[in-house]
Every structure is written in C-alpha cells, then in structure tokens.
Design goal:
This protein is α+β, with helices and mostly antiparallel strands and 106 residues long. The chain has helices at 32-37, 43-46, 97-105, and strands at 2-5, 8-11, 20-29, 53-63, 69-75, 78-81, 84-87, 91-94. The strands form 3 sheets. The chain has a 4-stranded antiparallel β-sheet with strand order 3-4-5-8. Strands 1-2 form a two-stranded antiparallel sheet.
Length: 106
C-alpha cells in the first residue's frame, strides 16, 4: 500500500520504524551570538533556547522500512516545551525521498 506525493507513488511505512545502522554525534560549544541568530528555530522556540552546546548528528541507516538512507541533523540546544526542557532538532536532511515523505506523514 502506498500514497502519492506530487503525482509520484510512495510506499507507506507507518511508525514506529525498526532501524539499523551507525551514527556519529558531534557536541559543539558555540558562541551565544551564533546560537541566538543561526539556530534555524522558529522565533517562538528560539527565545527559550538555553545552553551553548549544540549537536550535529550523522546517521547511516543500513536498513529501514524505506530502505537505506543517510541523515544529517542539527540540535541547537534545549528548548522549553510546556515548562519542560527538551533537546529539539531544528533542521534535518535525509538522502532518500522515501524517508522524507514518510517522515512527514508520520
């Protein structure tokens, strides 16, 4: 079973996904001036960002419900969500269109 996006049929892969692969995490100590202006967060989230450590992750998924793909993501620090602080991904890039459309659907 699948669904169409922009006239192209895609296989449906509902969450949760079972994934296998390898990943790398870089912890970066960045200046507040950079994090205050370059986090790629919406303004309502950027105002609550705390800390000077940001994370960059690279993941090589060898197996997933949508096939193998790579992922690069940026976490600019902790963000306030309803009075609790959580790390939040502000930007994510993937190498497979199947992972994009299913990620959005999920």
């Amino acid at each position: 079973m699948g669904f169409a996006v922009a006239g192209v049929e895609h296989r449906l892969a509902p969450a949760p996904w079972q994934l296998a692969g390898e990943g790398y995490i870089l912890a970066l100590w960045l200046p507040n001036a950079f994090l205050d202006t370059q986090t790629l967060l919406p303004p309502e989230q950027a105002a609550s960002r705390k800390g000077r450590i940001a994370y960059v992750m690279f993941v090589d998924y060898a197996a997933s419900p949508v096939g193998p793909y790579h992922e690069l993501l940026f976490i600019p620090g902790s963000i306030d969500f309803d009075g609790k602080r959580h790390l939040s991904i502000s930007r994510i890039f993937v190498s497979s269109w199947e992972s994009v459309v299913n990620g959005r659907a999920n």
